[in-house]
């Protein structure tokens, strides 16, 4: 796993990430704006923004969506105040705030954005480290509400960025606590996937913890690349002495594969009877009109007539790298298994998950080769069955 600063994403990728800013100051706002611009970050979830009022001179290519910081009564009647969360999303992703999911006593903000023409529900959440598991339960209630909203309104995916202040060895922390067990139980029950850099996202003099996580569900899970920590930037969060590091990852977009289109002859839908008739009639008439023609001239004319008949009676079709007429249900199963194995490996790069991914990819590739070879063999046999009869008829017409 890399911890050094990574290059800017290429045109086939978009950079997403999150940071607990530990109260947004004027200075940290300016630095964060430059950081997002320099790294071409398309979406950033921010936690503990405090009473931040975004400057109209900054984030001009983004839409800033933040929750309302308000007071509420916590456990045992203690007066508490939200810490503030925000989403900073590039306008090219068409972000829209979803106020239906706002709650006064929860640090959570939700928005929809569009990636490759598909709607994604995105959240930025924060769970304060006090109140034991009470605050986490309240936050998980908001997440359940968001998941129901996603299903009701047909979002293809959900991405939940959060400082959950929940520790568990399953996502790379060196210890497991009650909050971590509660969060893991919720993730499993909700069929979510936890994405973690498996490195301390929060640092302090005495160590650190892995508490800044991404929860995903849906198609987007296959496009999320491995997360990493950017330790080469000071966003005035207090790190590395005591504070959070940016957690970044790339999203593979539709441009990740070049959809090359080309024209191909559609042999299966050819009108062979009309093709043969045209070649027969045209060549016969030409020979009547040119009785003294030599073999080479006749051969050129035959090629010309065949080409014209092909244009007239054999259709063409536009294909791309996604046109796979040999595809069947078995390949779909192997492909799905390989995609799921890749997602597990990207989320947790263990030797076991690597072995499972390699095995799944081998099974898919072997099945793909077998199916393609069978299809091509069948296609060749089909063409060979028709061609001799056609050429024999043309030959009889020419030499009769």
Beta strand %: 15-25%
Q: Uncertain runs with pLDDT below 50, 5 residues or more?
A: 1-5, 255-260
- Helical fraction equals 25-40%
Overall pLDDT confidence:
83
- Strand order, largest beta sheet: 3-6-2-1-17-15
CATH evolutionary superfamily of the largest domain: Endonuclease/exonuclease/phosphatase
SSE topology string: EHEEEEEEEEHEHEEEEEEEEHHEHH
Walk me through the structure.
This protein is elongated. It has helices spanning 26-38, 134-152, 178-189, 272-289, 295-313, 329-347, 351-399, and strands at residues 13-20, 41-47, 62-66, 71-73, 79-81, 85-90, 96-97, 107-115, 118-126, 157-163, 193-195, 202-204, 207-209, 212-218, 228-229, 242-244, 247-252, 262-265, 316-319. The N and C termini lie far apart (76 Å). The protein is α+β, with helices and mostly antiparallel strands. α4 packs antiparallel against α5 (295-313) and α4 runs parallel beside α7. The protein has two domains: 13-256, Deoxyribonuclease I, Chain A; 262-399, no CATH class. The protein has seven helices and 19 strands. The strands form five sheets. Strands 3-6-2-1-17-15 form a six-stranded mixed sheet, with helices on one face. Strands 7-8-9-10-14-11 form a six-stranded mixed sheet, covered by helices on one side. The model is unreliable at 1-5 and 255-260 (pLDDT under 50). The relative contact order is 0.10.
Kindly summarize this structure in a few lines.
Helix content is 37%, strand content 24%. It is built from seven helices and 19 strands. The model is unreliable at 1-5 and 255-260 (pLDDT under 50).
